[in-house]
Amino acid sequence: xxxxxxxxxxxxxxxxxxxxxxxxxxxxxxxxxxxxxxxxxxxxxxxxxxxxxxxxxxxxxxxxxxxxxxxxxxxxxxxxxxxxxxxxxxxxxxxxxxxxxxxxxxxxxxxxxxxxxxxxxxxxxxxxxxxxxxxxxxxxxxxxxxxxxxxxxxxxxxxxxxxxxxxxxxxxxxxxxxxxxxxxxxxxxxxxxxxxxxxxxxxxxxxxxxxxxxxxxxxxxxxxxxxxxxxxxxxxxx
Length: 238
Hints:
Blueprint: H1 2-10, H2 16-33, H3 36-45, H4 54-103, H5 114-140, H6 146-175, H7 187-199, H8 202-217, H9 220-237
């Protein structure tokens, strides 16, 4: 930003021919890079066939520089998110390897070593959320508005925590026999389900909504009571 500011100050030292050359370059750059209000403002400052004006050229260059600065700020924000995710992934992988070597996590049965299994489920949920977050950041490609991307650092951390919580919820659903998933009867299967739950929290949301829907359909007493109440009210009204 300081470099761009210094270059804009140097524009005041250009003569008429140099300003005309700079104006030609600016118009080409603006037509290729700018859109929306920046392009309209640029065209208002430097209309076609207008005499080069150093003040307007400097302000037009400020618009071009701001566009470039915003692009680099978006890249920096995405890099920050990827750094957070990479650190979490490395930490989780190290924890999984240590837990597997010390407690034989991947070979024990689900009913053995409950706290170790819950810890493994949580780690695999966070790992799935990290994998999903890395893919989302990679697909973003510096798109979106800057305020939204600045907030997304906090969202990234929250998403990792949500991945662990989703994995624990899926583990509880399986242990309570609320859902049945093929291959989830052993520890590797449970950890695989935990990874999927962390990767897509919508899996847990879908299961919860399905369970609530079944509970609503399996409570005829409530509907019968409501029907009787309606009939008595209609009798009183008659």
